[in-house]
Design goal:
Layout: E1 2-7, E2 19-25, E3 35-41, H1 44-57, E4 62-63, E5 65-67, H2 73-76, H3 79-85, E6 87-88, E7 91-92, H4 114-124, H5 126-138, E8 142-143, E9 156-160, H6 163-169, E10 199-201, H7 219-222, E11 226-231, E12 234-238, H8 244-256, E13 266-268, H9 280-286, E14 298-302, H10 315-323, E15 326-330, E16 336-339, E17 360-362
Parallel strand pairs: 3-5, 4-6, 5-7, 7-8, 12-13, 13-14, 14-15
Antiparallel strand pairs: 1-2, 1-16, 2-3, 9-11, 10-17, 11-12
Length: about 375
């Protein structure tokens, strides 16, 4: 089996998102056997670019699966364009409002009802509701991607979230009433103060990245789908905006399946390289231990806006991946392509360069 994965650039200046297209095919059958998938759609402009990309490079208007990893608009807005302009066979997305009856006991007020909560969630998640509306209009089946539910295909495994974990996150989604137990850092709105940036030195032997807490990531981001794709002996992991809680659940699911995460060859760096989502403990399990010298054992991709640094990506995160043998590639306004050896060349395509090691990182 052969494959190619395309990360399209999303956004301008410091705001970005994810827009990913991929296809898998059997070389003995040619491209008539191809399976096409879209993982998140970024902004509306990114959605338009995805449509043109699939038509031009995959030579089709058929998409087997569209996956909305979570409800944030920088991942879902462009998918409305994909659903409208391409022939989509199935849409995988969470529908939080359909879980409202199951979580009313998690709120402080006993006046919260399933109906009132459903209305609040629908109102606050407009772009996700738009996807549902388009899918219903076009007769596209919608399936919720949970680790304890149906997998997308035999080669695609949803590692997180489970239904139970997802429902535990919903009370802290923006737009919902006050939950019984609030996180130490407000999950409703995480504000980042504009402060002077302090720069510190890092070397190969000096890692300053620390483990974030589960609550350092919003509940919406922690609801992200972590997806494993296996093509032959190659394993590719897509992480969207997953945080500590989501990764821990994915590790549990992986252990139940006998998955050795160190065997994963290709990794999407979560949340555009934010230091709030990943730390040494997760990296040791996901990538491997720190190496004594530079090696290229794995490949990591991330979608980052042109002017996202030093937050997206964080130099600490890039360095931490590289110390463990993962070469990191970032979009920064340019499309990236990862492919198997048998995938076709593209005329005029320049080979991407990995992000360099940062001698100084933002504290």
């Amino acid at each position: 089996m052969e494959y190619e994965v395309d990360f399209l650039p999303v956004g301008e200046e410091s705001k970005g998102g994810d827009a990913i297209a991929l296809r898998i095919w059997n070389p003995s059958e040619g491209f008539s056997s191809q399976f096409v998938m879209v993982i998140d759609g970024g902004t509306k402009n990114a959605g338009e670019a995805l449509v043109e990309h699939i038509k031009k490079y995959y030579d089709t208007e058929d998409v087997d699966v569209v996956l909305a990893t979570h409800c944030h608009s920088d991942h879902t807005s462009g998918l409305s364009v994909v659903l409208e302009k391409l022939k989509v066979k199935s849409l995988y997305m969470h529908k939080p409002w359909e879980h409202s009856e199951n979580i009313t006991n998690l709120f402080k007020s006993d006046r919260v009802t399933g109906n009132s909560l459903e209305i609040a969630l629908k109102k606050s998640l407009e772009t996700t509701r738009t996807l549902e509306s388009i899918a219903k209009k076009k007769g596209i089946p919608i399936i919720e991607p949970f680790s304890d539910g149906a997998d997308l295909e035999k080669s695609f495994v949803v590692l997180s979230p489970s239904v139970e974990y997802y429902r535990s996150l919903l009370p802290n989604f923006a737009g919902t009433p006050e939950p019984k137990e609030s996180a130490s850092i407000s999950q409703k709105v995480i504000s980042v103060a504009k402060e002077a940036i302090n720069w510190i030195r890092e070397t190969w032997g000096k890692e300053t990245l620390t483990d974030p807490e589960e609550n350092d990531t919003s509940s919406e981001n922690n609801s992200s789908v972590i997806l494993l794709l296996q093509v032959g002996d190659r394993k590719l992991l897509f992480t969207a905006d997953a945080g500590v809680g989501t990764f821990n659940k994915a590790f549990e699911k992986g252990a139940s399946l006998g998955l050795d995460f160190s065997s994963v060859n290709y990794i999407q760096v979560p949340h555009h390289g934010s230091k709030r989502n990943i730390g040494p403990t997760i990296l040791n399990a996901l990538v491997g231990p720190i190496l004594s010298e530079k090696k290229h054992i794995k490949t990591a991709y991330l979608s980052a806006p042109k002017k996202g640094e030093p937050k997206h990506p964080s130099g600490k995160v890039i360095n931490a991946f590289k110390r463990r043998g993962a070469e990191v590639f970032a979009t920064k306004g340019v499309a990236l392509r990862h492919r198997s050896d048998g995938a076709p060349e593209r005329e005029g395509r320049k080979k991407a360069s990995p992000v360099s090691f940062y001698d100084e990182v933002a504290e």
